[in-house]
Each structure stands twice: as C-alpha cells, then as structure tokens.
Amino acid sequence: MARQIDGIRRMLLIINKIYATNGQYGDSCVSVHELLSYINDHVDAPISERTLQRDINDIEMLFHIEISFDRATNSYRINERFSSREDRLSEMLLNFELLNAVDESPNMRSYILPEHHRAVFSKYMPQLIYAVRNQHTISFQYVLYRHGGEVITKENILPHYIKESNQLWYVLAYDADGYQLKAYGIDRIRNLVVHDTLFERNVDIDVNGMYRDCYGIWNDESLPVEEVILQYDNRDGYFLKAMPLHHTQRVLVDDGKVFKISVHVKITNDFVMALLSRSRSLEVIAPMHLRKRMMDVYREALVRNSVPNDMFNNNNVESNK
C-alpha cells in the first residue's frame, strides 16, 4: 500500500510541475532534468528516468491526461486537449497541496478543516470502472426518481465515462442504438450485469464540450443556450464574485448596491435548483420564461408553507418576546 501511495504522489508531482511551468511558447512543458530534480526533492527515495516514464504512462491510464515527450527540447508537455481540463485539474492539485501540507506537518491538522462530504458509496463502482476501461456492455435496472420510483430495465448499454456532479456519480453511456450519450445516476442502478460482449469505444466524444453550456449533469440537446440576466443585492454579490454561478458569468453592474450578471447556459432543472439555492435577493431580468418558472416555484412554496393568519397577531408576538 505504501508503494502505491508513493506512486500516486509522484504522479501528482509530475502533473503539478508540468502544469505550473510555462514553456518558451507559453504552453505547459518542463525539461527532463528539471522534472526529475523536482520530484526527487519531494520524495524520500530518488527515482530514475525509467521510473519517471513509467509514472507518466500510469498518469494517462489513471487520470486520462496525456503527457508527450518532445525530443527536440528534451522536455515533457501536457497535450493541449488535456490541459483544457483546467478546473478539474486545478481542484485535484489544490487537494494534493493540502494533503502534502498536512502530511509534512501533523500540526496542520489543527488549522486545515476540510468539508465533511456525505459518503456516497456504490458497490457497483468497481464493476462500472472495469466495464468502462475494458469496453464491456452492461445491463441493469434503473430507478426513476422523478417518476415515483418506477423501475425500468436497460439492456446492452455501452458505458464510456464515469462522471461526478454535486457529490453524486454517474455513468455516461450510449444505449444499444448508439445515438445519444446519456447520464445514469449510479445510486439509482440496481442488479448490474457486466457482459462478456465488447463494444468499440467512441473516441471522438467531446465530453467537456457537452457540458460546457450546462449546469450540473443534465444535458438536454433539445434545449437552446440562452443568455440569462440576473440581479442581486450587494451582499449576495460578494458570494457570487467569490464563487461564480457558471464559468460564463460576466458582471454587468457592480455599484455597491446592485450586482447584475449574465450567464450563457441551457436552462435545465439543475440550473433552476442552483438559482433557488441563492435566491434571497434574486431577480430574474431575462429571459421572461425563466422569471415565470421561478415565480411558479415561489408561489407553490408559499402555499405549502402558509400559516394561519392569527399566528402572528399582536398578542402572539408579545407573548413570544
């Protein structure tokens, strides 16, 4: 186990060094000598160039990040189409830096308090990873949460990716017709069967592009990308500047009283739920159909949470002081 942990640590060191180094042409690259020196300065047992190359091969297999060697400059670089995964990579590297700090100084545990996420476990995860990696078809029963727990059977599914969204895991897969990549919540899968039948993986899928205009896991191809204009007060504005609603967020007004932004997204249920989670001062300026959708949600909530008219009369208010 210790050897495996050391290997993972070296792999993250490699990614961290290459990703953080700007080469002569502005891309992420680093010489072999510099990379080896960096790694050996951060590990207990020095490694050879052969071990370095083996770690780089493992990085592509485990993290799906392709690192190529440039013989002309004797350097390694992260290929352009993989370096575009900046958000996810940055998150992973930040977690690595924090873990390193805690590991190197036990006292850091007194200062760094990570968020305690709800454990999301699925006994099917190892089987799904195996099926994705080795291109095996799968079948399972699937629980439809939005339809009262109805259970349907899915046969001859072609799993391509495992994706996380909002602390839940999904398998992205094609049905047997291979027409559209769909997301299946792993927490809703029952009676999974991994078949011996193999399929040919579609390597031309731009998964990042699929979700670029979405919020969360929903990606309805029939929905257009729309400009959404939202207005908040100054207090909510601080939070939205610290944690933008979407990567397309653009500030239109920030005058100390009003904070107005625009985002370009598909208006899915996930996006509406995100708006509701910070809606204390929210006003939907555009589009109008989203404004009406939010109004309908508020109206229904008002009915559900209504109280008797006399609950807050003067006598009750006085008695509760």
List keywords for this structure.
321 residues; alpha+beta; Arc Repressor Mutant, subunit A; SH3 type barrels; Alpha-Beta Plaits; 5-stranded antiparallel sheet; 4-stranded antiparallel sheet; CBASS_pafABC_assoc_protein; WYL_dom; WYL domain-containing protein
3D architecture notes:
It comes from Segatella copri. Pfam families: WYL (PF13280). This is WYL domain-containing protein. InterPro entries: CBASS_pafABC_assoc_protein (IPR051534), WYL_dom (IPR026881). With 321 residues, this protein is of the alpha+beta class. The chain folds into three domains: 2-110, Arc Repressor Mutant, subunit A, CATH 1.10.10; 125-205, SH3 type barrels; 225-304, Alpha-Beta Plaits, CATH 3.30.70. Helix content is 39%, strand content 26%. The chain contains eleven helices and twelve strands. The strands form three sheets. The chain has a five-stranded antiparallel beta sheet, covered by helices on one side. Strand 5 and strand 6 form a beta hairpin. Helix 1 (2-20) packs across helix 2 and helix 1 crosses helix 3. The protein is globular and about 80 Å long.
